[in-house]
Structures are given as structure tokens and as C-alpha cells.
Amino acid sequence: xxxxxxxxxxxxxxxxxxxxxxxxxxxxxxxxxxxWIRQLSAGRCxxxxxxxxxxxxxxxxxxxxxxxxxxxxxxxxxxxxLLNPNRQTIYFRDFRxxxxxxxxxxxxxxxxxxxSLTNVSISDEGRYFCQLYTDPPQEIYTTITVLVPPRNLVIxxxxxxxxxxxxxxxxxxxxxxxxxxxIRWFKGNKELTGKSEVEHWSDMYxxxxxxxxxxxxxxxxxxxxxxxxxxxxxxxxxxxxxEVMYKPQVRVSQNxxxxxxxxxxxxxxxxxTAFGKPQPTDMRWLRVDDEMPQHVVVSGSNLLISNLNKTxxxxxxxxxxxxxxxxxxxYMLFVYDPPTTIPPPTTTTTTTTTIPTTITDxxxxxxxxxxxxxxxxxxxxxxxxxxxxxxxxxxxxxxxARHKGTYFTHEAKGADDAADADTxxxxxxxxxxxxxxxxEYFI
Length: 443
Description:
Blueprint: H1 3-18, H2 23-41, E1 52-54, E2 58-61, E3 66-73, E4 80-83, E5 89-92, E6 103-108, E7 112-117, E8 126-132, E9 138-147, E10 152-157, E11 162-163, E12 167-177, E13 182-187, E14 190-192, E15 195-201, E16 204-214, E17 223-230, E18 233-241, E19 244-256, E20 268-277, E21 282-287, E22 297-299, E23 302-305, E24 314-321, E25 326-333, H3 362-402, E26 408-409, H4 421-427, E27 440-441
Parallel strand pairs: 2-9, 11-19
Antiparallel strand pairs: 1-3, 3-7, 4-5, 4-8, 6-7, 8-9, 10-12, 12-16, 13-14, 13-17, 15-16, 17-18, 19-20, 20-23, 21-24, 22-23, 24-25, 26-27
């Protein structure tokens, strides 16, 4: 008898002794098994060179189906069997000696034994052995790994309602998972960083992640998301919406005049709007550093002055409050002079072109008024200078006119009848002897 027969007989005897078979299983498997043992005893050896076993590790989520495959390359009809981690035979060829009905034969041939295990649990995790009775016998194992998704995912918020500026604490817990989960935090679409702690008990892991978050009014109604990264589950998340209380935000708008200057004699209407959480219920108008004029009408959120005058100048404040706090907004009123009336031109040949000007605010109007005053002053100065120059020209004209004429002297007397110049000189009054006494007269 060859060595292979002895080795196979020992293997068969060992496993037969480990089988915990009831009478029904023994009856169904006894005939075929007995024939195979008798063949071994008769000295039939199944020896083949180059045979080998192939299998793969299996990872399965708890409750799903795990499939174990024992495959033979270059098969020569040698016997294949599958054993559990306790080395109990699950399948011997196409027979199932084990009483666990969760094991079902998927495929059996000379080259493969494929078995499925339904409703997998943590207790099923471990090494499963594929054996091939050759000379020498071959054995290979496959490992079943069972993944357990988190049983529950909960976000706990320290305060259900927070006040703007507070720092709140949020905790997300993923219970009883295998392996341990990774927890990620998001506020809206922005990822945040938390601090995780892992607790290990009975082959399970419970992970708790803590997030500290300082909230503002922009966070009100924003979801905070706790997301789990785990190989047994996808897109597992839970979320809580933040509720943040904040004091009012106040704004004063000018209804009339629209985009115009506030001038004497014209009306003014202001409206106060306030937003907060909770919504403001107390809203009032006041005049800063002075009493409110008696002719000012306040109706709810509106303030009306029907006839502006310069005594109304000042700062008007709208205050609003809620359970969180109080806020205000100011409006500075400056009343300008009423517009002046320009007389129409006296001639019909003059063409006047009017350039429209849009006044966007009180400052622009004030600058326009200042520019108008500057132009008037410059025009007055130019007129005075022109008038002074005209007066000077008149005075100079009169002066030159009075000093214009013909000059006559006594030296010419008696020269009119002289035949020549020498005779004229001799006949002149006084002659040369009287030349020193000559006098000139202006006519």
C-alpha cells in the first residue's frame, strides 16, 4: 500500500471522528463515503503532479451573503472539502454533513466547490479551509471578514437655541460599528474639524465626535451635517438645523423727497425697518441731543414733517429692540434754502439752453449751491472792474479834449506884411532889443 493511501486514511479517520452527524445525515452520506473509504483501503492512490488550490478572502456586510470558492487547477478528480474555523466539515464533495442550513451548495465539479453562507453574523468571521486529497494533501484557507455598519447616528446639540456670538457644542455618535467609523462635519457646504473619541467593547466600536462652533446671525437656519465614512455603508449622514437669535438690524430710508434736497417749506417722510430674531416688537423715533419738534408726526415706523424749516436741523434716530438686545439707525437732517426764482429774459432773440442736473443726495445739492454763490461773486467783481475802467476812460477823454488847440505868440506880430524872414524879424514888435521881454500867451 502506497504512502498516499496511508495519509488519506488518516485524514479520513480524523474527520469522520469529528463529524457530529445525526442518523439522517449518516444514512444519506454513508454509502458514498463508505465506497470512497473502501477504495482507499484497496490501495487506490490519487496522485497527480502540479495540482494546486486557489481561493480568495471574503469581506461581507453583516446580514448579507458570503460566497466561498475552493478551486482546483489541473484537476484529476481528487476530493475537495470545505471546513469551518473549528475545522468541522461543511461540505465533503457535494454532501453537507454540518447541520447549519445557512450553508448552501452553489456549484460542485471536479475543479470547484462553491458554497454560500446567508445571513452572515460576527460569529461567522474567521478562517475557512479548503482541502484537496492528493499526494501530498493540499490545504489553503480563506478569511471571512464581517463589516458592521453603525447602528445609530445621532447629533446632540448643547443648546437648542443659541444667541449670536455664543460658542455651542455639538456631538455626533456612531454606535456599534466594525471597524471604527470616521466622522466628518459640515456646515452647509463647508467642512469643519471635530475631535473624535473611540470606545471599543465586545469587538464593536463606538465613535463620538465633538464640534465647537461659534455662531452668528448668518448661521440661523443653516444645516450642520454629521457624515460617516465606513466601508459597510455609503452616504450615511444626519443633520440638525441651527437656530440662532440675534438683535435687530435697523435701517432708515427717505421716502420723500426722492433723491432730492430737503428744502424749507417742503415735506419730509422717513421709514424705519428692523429685522431680528425674534422679530422686534418695540420701535420708536427720537431726536438726538434735542426734543422732537411738535409739528413732527410719528406713526409707527414712519416719521413725517409736512413743512420743513431750519429749526428742524439735527439727527433723528430710530431704535428697535427684542429679547436679545437693542439697535438703532440715525438720519442727519439739514434743511437748505428754498430755490430762488430767476426773472425771464427781456429780449426775444436770446436762446436759453437748460442743462438738466440730477441731485443724488444732500451733499451734491450743497456743493451746487456753493458753486452758484461763487459764480455770482465772480460776476459781481468783474462788473465792478469793467465799470471802473469805463469811468477812467471817460475822465481821460475829457482831459485830453480840454488841452487840444492852436498856440499864438507876440513874436509873430508885424511879420505878416514882411517880404522875407529877415524883414519880418526886424519889423517884429520891439525888434531884437525887446527879445528878452518877449512873452507867450495861451489862447
